[in-house]
Amino acid sequence: MLLKPKIKLERVTDITPEILKKYNIDSLILDVDNTLSTHHGDVLTDGLEDWLKLMHDSGIKLMVLSNSKERRVKPFAEKINLPFISLGLKPLPFGYIRALKALGSKRKNTAIVGDQIFTDVLGGNIVGVKTLLLTPILLESTAGFKFKRKIERLVFKIYRIKNTEV
Known about the structure:
The protein has helices spanning 17-22, 48-57, 70-79, 94-103, 117-127, 143-159; strands at residues 7-9, 27-30, 61-65, 84-85, 110-114, 130-134. By secondary structure, it is an alpha/beta fold.
């Protein structure tokens, strides 16, 4: 079940310290596009600044891991004051392993937070971290993304993926 997330929520701001405690998570690896902002956007999703403060105040370690280039990820990560890894090559394990090392976190206590089954969830499950899938902030319009989202909908049906009761 490499394509099934451990947790499914709507938005990053729906993640609470209580949910993380329930799943024994003390570290989050965060995707950027359609997770913290729109695809290639630089505007923070509503409530993100307060959520980041809540996570920080709760002792949750945070790091950005993106497949995008540094010129995209660095300004965004700096804007939210988080360390980052660009060109993460998700779903391959290299970026996840670098993030775990940088956070000083154990796999069993870490979750990847993202909007894509074939990068964030697949890679997280391969590496052995918990996977937290979010609904994309805004669906992409390119043919490649439309095809990928269509296949994701099929995976949702096969695995009966629905929002996690919290």
